[in-house]
């Protein structure tokens, strides 16, 4: 795999952007959300009338559905004779819920609590069911989704201008809206009270939408989650809903992998989001590196550093294997030598099992496996010079893995910012793996900062210019008068 990079600091460039005016339902839904003529629906559902869990009929005992986060909670009962405790799996079992309007919800369900009741009639178990990964009206052929998003930073890299009337268009909106192309087309809109996603699905499956959310989380340097994703038609009428699940971790820190700040006209978030969303669907190394990157944003520095280093090594092993080294001049002669001296070798072991193992190890000792510095080897194979300081940081992986700490809080330098900078070196390497595997060639944020606080580019990945980073979009509703 070859990578061509242009060594230039694009942060000082001031090229003119390209403006594209958007029309159609996605643009109309976006202006309606921003200017208040369309609101996110309340999370209410028709009354449930029938529940089937892994083929079993569950008697409904509750009169409604309620949401705990994104999980649907339903009350039910089942005869004790039909209840099999082995069905209580963490993953959940196929579940279908019929509602009084004859629509259905499908998903994975499991009972989280149960109480046995005994009386004159047959005994039964009363249960609270949790239904997750659900899809209300799965056959609804709607093209658009609406959802409130959590985890969007206040200073979003904006490339979308939403306006009313016919104002003079400017390249940079203070409204902080974003348009990104993943498996679906995403408009992330700042309503002043939070962020809303308006999504043109373009046929994307729930799995592909989840991959887009993971890509968005990586690009924004922290987990992005959605509330219920409402299926709507071009007018905003609700046609169904989706649960796209929540992240397994909560962020304590945020760290953007791309160059970020008011002095940049480039919106590097757009090309990185597109590249990463598509790579996640097919490349395991990209997925591993992103999971590791997001895991470095939560928990203690020790745990974040360990997870980052281990994830970095694992993601590099997904696509790069250092050559094996033979330690003897003749493998055939070595085999003969071990066979000839097997009795002497066995004599050094205390048990029969130990004797067998010792001889086997002697047979295979002629080959040195892949070196432990697979990360350095992987980057070197692409001609990327990491520099001595970065190579030294990579080598500290063993200390974190075997001693289970990043630094000795009593004996080492107590400067926490120094340790944060070390973690950012690992985070930058993870981001570079994502760029390598996804084909993104723009700049990435490094671990040093300018006087104004903006990140410097990674020194070995300065990036090359990308037209997509200078494309801006306008959504203008001519039916509404300009704001005074």
Description of the structure:
The protein has 484 residues and is of the alpha+beta class. Among the domains are: 10-41 and 140-279 and 469-477, no CATH class; 48-136; 325-368, no CATH class. Helices cover 29% and strands 25% of the residues. The protein contains 12 helices and 21 strands. The chain has a 6-stranded antiparallel barrel. β11 and β12 form a beta hairpin. α4 (284-295) runs antiparallel to α5, α4 (284-295) packs antiparallel against α12 and α5 (301-317) packs parallel to α12. The protein is globular, with a radius of gyration of 28 Å. Mean pLDDT is 83; it is low at 1-12 and 169-174.
Which overall shape is indicated by the principal axes computed on the Cα atoms? Answer: globular
For the largest beta-sheet, the strand count, sense and barrel status come to: 6 strands, antiparallel, barrel
User: How many beta-strand segments?
Assistant: 21
Q: Return Rg in Å.
A: 28 Å
Pairing-aware structural class of the strands and helices?
alpha+beta
Mean pLDDT: 83
Strand content: 15-25%
Low-confidence stretches: 1-12, 169-174
Spatial strand arrangement across the major sheet = 2-3-5-8-7-6
- How far apart the termini lie comes to 54 Å
Please summarize what this structure is:
The chain is of the alpha+beta class and 484 residues long.
Record keyword descriptors for this entry.
alpha+beta, 484 residues, 6-stranded antiparallel barrel
């Amino acid at each position: 795999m070859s990578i061509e990079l242009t060594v230039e600091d694009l942060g000082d460039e001031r090229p003119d952007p390209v403006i594209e005016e958007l029309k159609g339902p996605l643009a109309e839904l976006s202006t309606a959300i921003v200017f208040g003529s369309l609101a996110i629906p309340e999370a209410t559902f028709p009354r449930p009338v029938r529940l089937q869990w892994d083929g079993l009929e569950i008697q409904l005992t509750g009169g409604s559905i309620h949401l705990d986060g994104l999980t649907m909670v339903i009350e039910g009962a089942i005869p004790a004779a039909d209840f099999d405790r082995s069905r209580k799996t963490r993953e959940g079992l196929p579940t279908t819920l019929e509602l009084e309007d004859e629509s259905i919800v499908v998903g994975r369900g499991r009972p989280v609590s149960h109480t046995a009741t005994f009386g004159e009639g047959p005994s039964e178990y009363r249960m609270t069911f949790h239904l997750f990964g659900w899809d209300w009206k799965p056959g609804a052929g709607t093209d658009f989704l609406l959802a409130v998003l959590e985890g969007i930073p206040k200073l979003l890299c904006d490339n979308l201008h939403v306006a009313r009337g016919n104002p003079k268009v400017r390249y940079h909106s203070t409204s902080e809206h974003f348009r990104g192309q993943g498996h679906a087309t995403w408009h992330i809109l700042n309503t002043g009270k939070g962020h809303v996603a308006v999504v043109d699905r373009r046929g994307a499956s729930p799995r592909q939408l989840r991959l887009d959310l993971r890509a968005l989380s990586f690009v924004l340097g922290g987990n992005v989650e959605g509330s219920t994703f409402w299926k709507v038609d071009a007018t905003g009428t609700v046609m169904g809903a989706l649960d796209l699940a929540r992240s397994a971790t909560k962020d304590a820190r945020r760290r953007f992998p791309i160059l970020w700040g008011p002095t940049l006209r480039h919106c590097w978030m757009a090309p990185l989001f597109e590249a990463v969303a598509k790579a996640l669907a097919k490349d395991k190394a990209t997925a591993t590196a992103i999971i590791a990157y997001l895991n470095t944003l939560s928990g203690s520095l020790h745990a974040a550093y360990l997870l980052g280093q281990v994830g970095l090594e694992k993601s590099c092993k997904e696509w790069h294997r250092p050559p094996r080294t033979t330690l003897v001049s003749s493998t055939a002669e070595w085999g003969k030598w071990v066979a000839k001296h097997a009795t002497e070798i066995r004599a050094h072991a205390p048990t029969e099992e130990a004797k067998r193992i010792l001889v086997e190890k002697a047979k295979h000792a002629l080959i040195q496996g892949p070196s432990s510095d697979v990360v350095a080897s992987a980057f070197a194979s692409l001609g990327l010079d990491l520099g001595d300081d970065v190579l030294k940081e990579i080598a500290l992986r063993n200390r974190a893995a075997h001693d289970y700490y990043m630094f000795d809080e009593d004996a080492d330098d107590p400067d926490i910012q120094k340790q944060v900078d070390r973690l950012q070196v690992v985070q930058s390497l993870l981001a570079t793996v994502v760029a390598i595997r996804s084909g993104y060639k723009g700049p990435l944020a490094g671990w040093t900062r300018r006087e104004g606080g903006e990140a410097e580019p990674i020194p070995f990945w300065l990036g090359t210019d990308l037209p997509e980073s200078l494309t801006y979009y306008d959504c203008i509703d001519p039916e509404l008068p300009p704001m005074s």
